[in-house]
């Protein structure tokens, strides 16, 4: 675990710096345009390019040294950040520059993320994969907690240029940690790699064949894709739900409490590592997360909403950490790059689709239905209330019910429920040798 801990430390510092820059750029764009649409486009350009490139990136990650893929990806992201800093300092930064450079940075992340996850099975003993994934969730939680608070202070004191330069310093720390360690090499066990284009295309499509031969993993992929869609609808509507009856201060407090829940869940996952049957933890905590969304939609009582946020984010490190440990244990290390990239693409595509439909559903369907004189005011309105925000609350309840049903149905599928037992662990079957820096 020592080598992984060094790499994890560098990546955690870098992630925090990236989140600071993302927060600061969002504020800068909104202050200069006053447009929520242009603000939202940052999210699109940050997610979409990397998602679309994932299959190609995964195939190349399996061909190349994963350590050097991470080094080059971090370097590319640092150069895009440096470009933004130079444009800002010279007073030539435009909105389209941010969109373009965010897309380029997203393309580099398409390589960095699968290389990072696939490297874990080379650096971490099988029995500690759950804990290692808990550490990654801890990194996400810390970045979400620190970036908004620290970013707001730094924007006032050192402004956007200073925040970006601080981000560059965090990239340097991540680079040093990667240069100081060695990763083992992988013995190829599944497909022979060649350098021609036909072989590359075959390697990209091979991951689908690999998953079809393992229906338990394929079921896990579809289960999380569906759940990501339902949860994406909820995530994009949290802000309008709370602001419909309360203030931005209350919103920030509730989100901070949610971040605290994620932090505590990450710490527990890191020390515990998950149960022997990891899939049981996935199902159990997914049910708890769905119930917390259901509770959030039923009322407008602020303490209960804060409790809902805490419980939901508390479950995230367990569902994601245990599911990642399953993928890492059951997927041959020499194809993990392309398989993890397919997983990334499928789950992340569900998120922007949810973003696209959530707003229109809330504005044009559910809010009118739950208005004071709406069609459902005399029925469901008697239970959850009527007026602004209650349509979003009803949408929360429906998404929670769908998520609960998806979990129950997934549990009935034997290949997924028994994935821990039926699929052998392949990590220990791969022999590795040290790789020079």
From TrEMBL:
What are the entry keywords? Answer: Cell membrane, Membrane, Transmembrane, Transmembrane helix, Transport
Q: Which GO terms describe its molecular function?
A: transmembrane transporter activity
| Entries under SUPFAM superfamilies matching the protein | MFS general substrate transporter
Which segments cross the bilayer? 7-30, 42-61, 68-89, 95-117, 138-158, 164-183, 217-243, 249-271, 278-298, 304-327, 339-358, 392-411
Q: Where is the Major facilitator superfamily (MFS) profile domain?
A: 3-418
| Transport recorded as keyword | yes
Query: Which Gene Ontology cellular component terms are annotated?
Result: plasma membrane
Q: Where in the cell is it found?
A: Cell membrane
What is its membrane topology? Multi-pass membrane protein
Q: What InterPro entries does the record tag this protein with?
A: MFS (IPR011701), MFS_dom (IPR020846), MFS_trans_sf (IPR036259)
The answer to whether the entry has keyword Transport is: yes
This protein's name = MFS transporter
| Species per Swiss-Prot/TrEMBL record | Candidatus Thiomargarita nelsonii
